[in-house]
Amino acid sequence: MTNAEIAQLFADIADMLEIQGEDRYRYLAYRRAADELGQYPGSVEALWRDGRLEEVPGVGKTIATKIDELLSSGTLKFYERLRQEVPPSLIEVLRVPGVGPKRANLLWKTLGITDLAMLEAAAKEGRLKGVKGLGAQTAQNILKGIEALHSLGDRTLLGTALPLAETLLDALRQAPGVVQAEMGGSLRRRQETVGDIDLLCAAGDTAPVVQFFTELPQVRSVQSAGANKATVILHRDLSVDLIVLPPASWGSLLQHFTGSQAHNVELRSAAVAQGLHVSEWGITRDGVLTPYADEAAHYRALGLDWIPPELREAEGELEAAREGRLPHLIELGDVRGDLQMHTTWSDGTRSVEEMARAAQALGYEWIAITDHSRGLGVTQGLDVERLREQRREIDAVNDRLAPFRVLRSIELEILADGTLDLPDDVLAQLDVVVASVHTGQRADRPALMKRYLNAVHNPHVDIIAHPFGRLLNRRPPMDLDFEALVDACAETGTALEINGQADRMDLNGGQARYAMQRGVMISLASDAHHPDGLKVMSLAVSTARRAWLEPKHVLNAMPLDIFLAWLQR
Ligand code: DGT
Ligand code: CA
Ligand code: CA
Ligand code: ZN
Asked: Residue 141, Cα to own-chain centre: how many angstroms?
């Protein structure tokens, strides 16, 4: 079983226990284990074989025993019994805003509702009125919530698809005759969600590669397989396209199947104007095909500089490539610090020192510790007193790790009434203040903007975190007047964040580019809650690249002294 499959099973257990009204500490333990298993970088199955399951954070004896039963027998009795007691399809009902576990339980017990379609039908037919605590307004909100869910779609997160694709590529590179193997499509362009995984290979003899691919253990079923391409479905319910061409066409193949479709349409029509025809095999001039083994050579033949895949969205990159003025995009190696992470002082699972040492090991020079402020009730956020205690700990860590620097910061709650969660004199003592909205996200635009603008105009607020508050496939973005927010940030010198959490990616590329063009600095954040979580900085960097950002646009690329000077702006 893959890590994701194991994680999903424990997440389902947590949901079913919660629906049953189990104790909070119990279902939270399963949910935490599910999160950690899902994010564990190595193979959980391999860990299990080595008897080292308890090395995964959140996995204690109880859960390790359950994983052992699951992996050795293929099923888990506890899970199967829960599925008898709580219909598993009820879990999807929990995704509807306003339907928590208690309400889901009530809907099931009183109306026999066990899935989303039944809930939608009951709401439309006015049958929810009979249920305790459900007024006409609630029924209306539930219907709106179901609409919103339908429109969210269910594309796969980049952070989920990337490691899967890497594993497949590692396997393909061992296949007979393979000389090149890379990802293509939206995955190579690092779009925040992908419809499928596209894999590209170069090999002299293509058919054996296709056969090798369709027989990989990750493959659940083969949709189609030919001499040089195949489409398969993985156990993890994700479709994968493979295309194999001879090495001479490798560059042309990469270019063609990286897309985007809009980029290719623009590229091809420009080529036609020059009397050229472009395909995955190469470029045809006067009836003669020239294959390109190298992607840069393929672009050069069209009079263009090589275009980084993240820019291939028909947003002006072809013109820039023609005129030799493509940006020098930021890279992971330019990142010197991380501007959002949590510790045991709020909802993180590791100490300040452990997070600092992990960041140091990644080659960073500085980090900001941004535990939640008190207003976010669920995470035992910091009040004035605990902030003072935390300061002593951070000072001590700085003494030990110098010249590495831990900046004192906070993820400051912008409260529903528009005020900030801590007074100005407390904020003034912090090195950097990151403000964000976690509650009342469904307020209307004027109310939300009033809250944001108040925060942006506070002289102590340096960065607005995950501005839209969206959760991919789960929660729509807040209804913001983004242009007004960007204007206010430009005016006050406030930065906007690209949050690298796989289900956030907030801002997205287009939004961050807009902000950059108006002179707003961008902050990159892993928003890590444990050392492994720091790695999603690579996703934030991908998004920054999609936003055309260069190091000069990004706070994290600043050496410590320059960043400290920026904070005094
Ligand atoms: P996705 O899968 O929805 O996230 O987006 P893409 O861009 O990966 O689209 P996909 O998988 O349909 O195709 C991969 C790339 O192949 C696409 O970006 C452009 C290129 N391509 C070449 N020929 C075709 C074609 O005939 N149809 C489509 N849709 N794409 C093509
Ligand atoms: Ca694709
Ligand atoms: Ca595809
Ligand atoms: Zn947050």
From this structure: 28
pLDDT of residue 152: 74
Please name which of 489, 530, 531 lies closest in space to residue 512, comparing C-alpha atoms: 489
Residue-level pLDDT at 24: 85
What are the φ and ψ backbone dihedral angles of 496, each rounded to 5 degrees? -115, 145
Give, using CA atoms, the residue closest to atom 8 of ligand 1: 185
Domain harbouring 103, CATH code: 1.10.150.110
Q: Which residues of the chain register pLDDT less than 70?
A: 153, 376-379
Q: Is the CB of 265 under 6 A from ligand 1?
A: no
CA-to-CA separations, 201 to 31, 218, 264, 289, 360, in angstroms, rounded: 38, 18, 20, 20, 37
**According to the model, what pLDDT value does residue 376 have?**
67
Token reading at 225: 């397989």
pTM of the model: 0.81
Exposed / middle / buried, residue 515 (Cβ in 10 Å: 0-12, 13-18, 19+): buried
pLDDT of residue 94: 85
Q: Which residues contact 304 (CB under 8 A, 6 or more apart)?
A: 318, 321, 322
Residue type, 238: L
Domain count, the chain: 4
Decide: 279 in ligand 1 pocket, CB within 6 A: no
Residues 321 and 367 in one domain: no
Nearest ligand to the C-alpha of residue 256? 1
Mark which of 326, 360, 376 sits at the end of a domain.
326
What distances in angstroms separate CA 202 from CA 32, 288, 294, 420, 519, one per listed residue? Answer: 42, 22, 12, 56, 43
